[in-house]
Protein backbone atom coordinates (compact mmCIF):
# COMPACT_ATOMS: atom_id res chain seq x y z
CA UNK A 1 0.00 0.00 0.00
CA UNK A 2 1.48 3.40 1.01
CA UNK A 3 5.25 3.20 1.51
CA UNK A 4 7.98 5.77 0.87
CA UNK A 5 5.45 8.20 -0.60
CA UNK A 6 4.41 5.61 -3.18
CA UNK A 7 1.12 3.73 -3.38
CA UNK A 8 1.29 0.28 -4.91
CA UNK A 9 -1.14 -2.61 -4.51
CA UNK A 10 -1.22 -6.21 -5.67
CA UNK A 11 -4.38 -6.80 -7.68
CA UNK A 12 -6.45 -9.94 -7.82
CA UNK A 13 -6.46 -11.68 -11.19
CA UNK A 14 -8.91 -9.94 -13.54
CA UNK A 15 -9.92 -7.52 -10.77
CA UNK A 16 -9.81 -4.55 -13.13
CA UNK A 17 -11.35 -5.00 -16.56
CA UNK A 18 -9.56 -3.85 -19.70
CA UNK A 19 -11.88 -0.89 -20.34
CA UNK A 20 -11.38 0.24 -16.70
CA UNK A 21 -7.59 0.05 -17.18
CA UNK A 22 -7.84 2.21 -20.27
CA UNK A 23 -9.93 4.79 -18.41
CA UNK A 24 -7.71 4.79 -15.30
CA UNK A 25 -4.43 5.10 -17.22
CA UNK A 26 -5.64 7.66 -19.78
CA UNK A 27 -5.77 10.59 -17.36
CA UNK A 28 -9.36 11.30 -18.43
CA UNK A 29 -10.75 10.02 -15.14
CA UNK A 30 -9.70 12.86 -12.84
CA UNK A 31 -11.72 11.69 -9.83
CA UNK A 32 -9.41 8.72 -9.23
CA UNK A 33 -5.65 8.74 -8.65
CA UNK A 34 -3.92 8.19 -12.01
CA UNK A 35 -2.52 4.70 -12.18
CA UNK A 36 -0.40 2.35 -14.19
CA UNK A 37 -0.22 -1.42 -14.26
CA UNK A 38 2.86 -3.55 -13.79
CA UNK A 39 3.32 -7.31 -14.04
CA UNK A 40 5.98 -8.85 -11.82
CA UNK A 41 6.56 -12.57 -11.26
CA UNK A 42 3.16 -13.46 -12.68
CA UNK A 43 1.31 -10.97 -10.45
CA UNK A 44 -0.32 -7.72 -11.49
CA UNK A 45 0.21 -4.55 -9.48
CA UNK A 46 -1.42 -1.16 -9.66
CA UNK A 47 0.91 1.78 -9.10
CA UNK A 48 -0.66 5.15 -8.44
CA UNK A 49 0.64 8.64 -9.21
CA UNK A 50 0.04 10.36 -5.88
CA UNK A 51 1.91 13.59 -6.61
CA UNK A 52 0.69 16.23 -4.15
CA UNK A 53 -1.61 13.80 -2.34
CA UNK A 54 -1.35 11.63 0.78
CA UNK A 55 -3.79 9.07 2.17
CA UNK A 56 -6.19 10.25 4.87
CA UNK A 57 -4.55 7.74 7.22
CA UNK A 58 -1.64 10.20 7.36
CA UNK A 59 -3.86 12.98 8.72
CA UNK A 60 -5.87 13.52 11.89
CA UNK A 61 -9.35 14.68 10.98
CA UNK A 62 -10.33 16.38 14.24
CA UNK A 63 -13.19 18.65 13.10
CA UNK A 64 -16.60 17.34 12.10
CA UNK A 65 -16.90 19.96 9.35
CA UNK A 66 -13.71 18.57 7.77
CA UNK A 67 -15.00 15.01 8.05
CA UNK A 68 -18.30 16.00 6.41
CA UNK A 69 -16.37 17.80 3.64
CA UNK A 70 -14.36 14.63 2.98
CA UNK A 71 -17.47 12.42 3.08
CA UNK A 72 -19.35 14.71 0.70
CA UNK A 73 -16.45 14.66 -1.77
CA UNK A 74 -16.16 10.87 -1.57
CA UNK A 75 -19.89 10.59 -2.35
CA UNK A 76 -19.48 13.00 -5.28
CA UNK A 77 -16.60 10.89 -6.61
CA UNK A 78 -18.67 7.71 -6.32
CA UNK A 79 -21.59 9.38 -8.11
CA UNK A 80 -19.28 10.41 -10.98
CA UNK A 81 -17.63 6.97 -11.20
CA UNK A 82 -20.50 5.64 -13.33
CA UNK A 83 -19.64 8.22 -15.99
CA UNK A 84 -16.39 6.28 -16.40
CA UNK A 85 -18.14 2.87 -16.36
CA UNK A 86 -16.88 2.09 -12.86
CA UNK A 87 -19.37 0.52 -10.47
CA UNK A 88 -19.37 2.65 -7.27
CA UNK A 89 -20.20 -0.39 -5.13
CA UNK A 90 -16.87 -1.96 -6.15
CA UNK A 91 -14.75 1.02 -5.05
CA UNK A 92 -12.84 0.36 -1.84
CA UNK A 93 -13.35 3.40 0.41
CA UNK A 94 -11.02 3.57 3.42
CA UNK A 95 -8.57 6.00 5.00
CA UNK A 96 -5.89 4.19 2.98
CA UNK A 97 -7.57 4.65 -0.42
CA UNK A 98 -8.99 8.16 -0.01
CA UNK A 99 -6.30 10.76 -0.72
CA UNK A 100 -6.15 14.43 0.22
CA UNK A 101 -4.16 17.30 -1.23
CA UNK A 102 -3.40 19.66 1.64
CA UNK A 103 -2.61 22.59 -0.67
CA UNK A 104 -5.78 22.47 -2.77
CA UNK A 105 -8.24 20.62 -0.51
CA UNK A 106 -8.90 18.19 -3.35
CA UNK A 107 -10.00 14.63 -2.60
CA UNK A 108 -9.32 11.63 -4.87
CA UNK A 109 -9.64 7.90 -4.50
CA UNK A 110 -7.07 5.27 -5.40
CA UNK A 111 -9.28 2.78 -7.22
CA UNK A 112 -8.96 -0.66 -5.75
CA UNK A 113 -11.90 -2.88 -6.71
CA UNK A 114 -13.58 -4.87 -3.99
CA UNK A 115 -14.12 -8.57 -4.74
CA UNK A 116 -17.70 -9.34 -5.82
CA UNK A 117 -18.75 -10.77 -2.46
CA UNK A 118 -17.44 -7.68 -0.62
CA UNK A 119 -18.95 -5.10 -3.00
CA UNK A 120 -21.41 -3.31 -0.71
CA UNK A 121 -21.27 0.46 -1.02
CA UNK A 122 -23.42 1.22 2.01
CA UNK A 123 -21.38 -1.00 4.30
CA UNK A 124 -18.13 0.39 2.91
CA UNK A 125 -19.29 3.99 3.45
CA UNK A 126 -20.46 3.32 7.02
CA UNK A 127 -17.10 1.73 7.86
CA UNK A 128 -15.34 4.74 6.32
CA UNK A 129 -17.47 7.12 8.40
CA UNK A 130 -16.43 5.11 11.48
CA UNK A 131 -12.78 5.70 10.53
CA UNK A 132 -13.45 9.43 10.14
CA UNK A 133 -15.13 9.60 13.56
CA UNK A 134 -12.16 8.13 15.42
CA UNK A 135 -10.11 11.33 15.66
CA UNK A 136 -12.87 13.92 16.04
CA UNK A 137 -12.23 16.34 18.91
CA UNK A 138 -15.04 18.88 18.56
CA UNK A 139 -17.90 16.96 20.19
CA UNK A 140 -20.06 16.97 17.05
CA UNK A 141 -19.61 13.35 16.01
CA UNK A 142 -23.39 12.91 16.10
CA UNK A 143 -23.54 14.47 12.62
CA UNK A 144 -21.39 11.68 11.22
CA UNK A 145 -23.42 9.12 13.18
CA UNK A 146 -26.57 10.52 11.59
CA UNK A 147 -24.99 10.33 8.14
CA UNK A 148 -24.00 6.71 8.77
CA UNK A 149 -27.53 5.78 9.87
CA UNK A 150 -29.04 7.56 6.87
CA UNK A 151 -26.74 5.74 4.45
CA UNK A 152 -27.03 2.33 6.06
CA UNK A 153 -30.74 2.11 6.86
CA UNK A 154 -32.26 3.85 3.85
CA UNK A 155 -32.30 2.81 0.23
CA UNK A 156 -31.29 6.13 -1.27
CA UNK A 157 -29.29 6.95 -4.36
CA UNK A 158 -25.95 8.69 -4.07
CA UNK A 159 -27.54 12.04 -4.96
CA UNK A 160 -29.79 11.85 -1.88
CA UNK A 161 -26.80 10.86 0.28
CA UNK A 162 -24.89 13.89 -1.00
CA UNK A 163 -27.88 16.13 -0.26
CA UNK A 164 -28.15 14.72 3.28
CA UNK A 165 -24.46 15.39 3.99
CA UNK A 166 -24.94 18.93 2.65
CA UNK A 167 -27.87 19.40 5.02
CA UNK A 168 -25.79 18.09 7.94
CA UNK A 169 -23.01 20.55 7.04
CA UNK A 170 -25.50 23.43 7.10
CA UNK A 171 -26.96 22.26 10.44
CA UNK A 172 -23.47 22.05 11.95
CA UNK A 173 -22.62 25.53 10.69
CA UNK A 174 -25.86 26.92 12.11
CA UNK A 175 -25.17 25.27 15.46
CA UNK A 176 -21.68 26.76 15.54
CA UNK A 177 -23.08 30.21 14.72
CA UNK A 178 -25.59 29.99 17.58
CA UNK A 179 -22.96 28.90 20.08
CA UNK A 180 -20.41 31.43 18.86
CA UNK A 181 -22.57 34.45 18.80
UniProtKB/TrEMBL annotation:
Classification via Pfam families: DUF6382
Domain of life of the source: Bacteria
Domain named DUF6382: residues: 9-131
Protein name according to UniProt: DUF6382 domain-containing protein
